[in-house]
Structures are given as C-alpha cells and as structure tokens.
Amino acid sequence: MNQTLMLTNSFRVAVSRSPTSRVPSLRQGLCLARNACAAVGLALLFWASTAFAQTSSEDAPPPIVVPKQAPVSEPASLPQKEPDPNAQPQSSSVSTALAVTPPDNNDEAKQSKRILWIFPNYRAVSADTQLPPLSLKRKFWLATQDSFDYSSFITAGILAGVSQAKNSYPEFGQGAKGYGRYYWHGAADQAVGNYLTEAIVPAVTHEDPRYYTLGHGGFFKRTGYAVSRLLVTRTDAGGRTFNFSEIVGNGAGAGISDRYYPARERTWTKTGQKWLTQIALDGAFNIVKEFWPDINHAIFHGKY
C-alpha cells in the first residue's frame, strides 16, 4: 500500500542555494535530465495500458483434483455370540478420546484482507503459502484495489487537511478551493505510486509485487526480513531478484509528480526527498504487515 507523497514536506532538509553564477548550460542539463525521467515514467504508463488492453483473461490457477476414495466393503456379518453375564462392560473413554480431536487453529499465521477493518492489506501473503504467479490483469487489479479503496480517499482527505494546516504548499492557498488542490494532488500521488510499483514496473521486470510474510523467528529477524524486502523481492517464477518495482517505481513516481506540483517544488533535492520518504514509508508498512497476524491474534483474537 503506497501512501501519498505529500508527507515529504515534513522531511524537508535545509539545502544551500546555488550560487548565482551557475553556468546556464548546467541548469538546462539538469532540467533535461529530470524531464527525461518523467518521460520514461510516462512511457511505461503508455506501454502498460496498451498491454493491459490486450489481456482478455487472467491466468487461473490449476484446479485441484481430489482423488476419489474406493468404497470400503463392509465386513461379512459374523454370528453373534451370547452375552457373557460375568463379563464387565469396557469403558469407551479411549475410543471417545480418539474420536474427538480439536481442530487446528492457524489464525495466528493468517493475513487478513484489511488491517483493523480499514486499511487494505491485499498484497500481504500468509506465511508458508505458495501462490501461482500474478497475470498482468491481476497486477493491475491489485494496484486498482489499493488506489481506489474507500480508505484511500479517507487517507487523502486527512493528509490534505494536515498539509493545508501546515501551509505546505502556499501556492495552493487556503479555504475550500485550496483544500481541493491539496486533496487531488494527494490522491494523484497515491494512484501514480501504486500503479508504478504494483503493476507497471512488475509487469516489465516480471516481479511479484506481493509481500510474503516470514511468520517465524525472533523480533529482530522478522524486522530485518521486512526491511530487506525493499531491496529483494520474488519473481513470477518464484526466484529472488532486486526489487526494481520499489526502487525504480517510486523514483519514477516522484519524477512524474514534479509535472503537476508547483515549480518551486521541482528541484532535485525535493524530488529525492519524496523518493526516499516513500521508500521509508513502504519499509514501515512492511513491518506492520509482518507482525499484523500476531497482533490480530494476540489482542483482537482474529476478529480483524
């Protein structure tokens, strides 16, 4: 679940201004490089939309065939013996104990579709679970779920209000009109980031955008695993590879966002801040996903 890039305003650092005597050609070169990054992102969007239109049906997992059991023949009836009046009745506690077996409770290791019934958790896979690879259509559907879930609009509204209260972008202004500008910028940041990291880049690099829960080991081991998923991910074939979806996808998203933010925000420093901030947020959410089944089981008894 990629969160809005508008949070980057709180992570700003002081950057010294460039001297007035900077060579104009260097400035033009930097602008051309930034525009090239945005063009690459737009090209990926165009390619993915064309490929997605050509996909008519998604790949379905192979059906599971349950073998039929042969009917058990009933034993031939034996002649009944006369009951022995001296025989004592045997206790049926052994057979009863064997017949009654408590069902296994695996709620502790299960990922729910939502966290606290609010935040989407569609990309999280339960521990020790093997799933078939996602088709192109499924990857785009996953990004659509995260981008247009009802909680995404609520989150964008909250962040828009916080940013407006802090006057993060003075060009947007105040009042209802200013709030509307903050809101649509935040919603656009979420959608662009989700489609790039969950659908477009994974389709190009054949990566699996889902988070596979480790589910066992100590706190530091599982935390390290969750953070390492920022750099390592699974391929569609089940192997491991560098996480281009996370690194390149968020970088392209930060570059594309420069095209609709005020000119004052279109600097290399602020673009890099948005890029690194989004990666850090994804790392924090990976930790939440890793321990959510344990929290849900221990505190909420699997109700969420």
Overview of the structural elements:
The chain contains 8 helices and 7 strands; from the N terminus they run ααβββαααββαββαα. It is mainly α. The strands form 3 sheets. A 3-stranded antiparallel beta sheet has the order 4-6-7. A hairpin with a 3-residue loop joins strand 1 (114-115) and strand 2 (119-120). Helix 1 (24-54) crosses helix 7 (244-257), helix 4 (150-165) crosses helix 5 and helix 5 (175-205) packs antiparallel against helix 7 (244-257).
Quick overview:
With 304 residues, the protein is mainly alpha-helical. Helices cover 50% and strands 6% of the residues. It contains 8 helices and 7 strands.
What's the helix and strand layout?
Layout: H1 24-54, H2 93-99, E1 114-115, E2 119-120, E3 124-125, H3 136-148, H4 150-165, H5 175-205, E4 207-208, E5 211-212, H6 219-228, E6 232-235, E7 240-242, H7 244-257, H8 268-298
Helix pairs in contact: 1-5, 1-7, 3-5, 4-5, 5-7, 6-8, 7-8
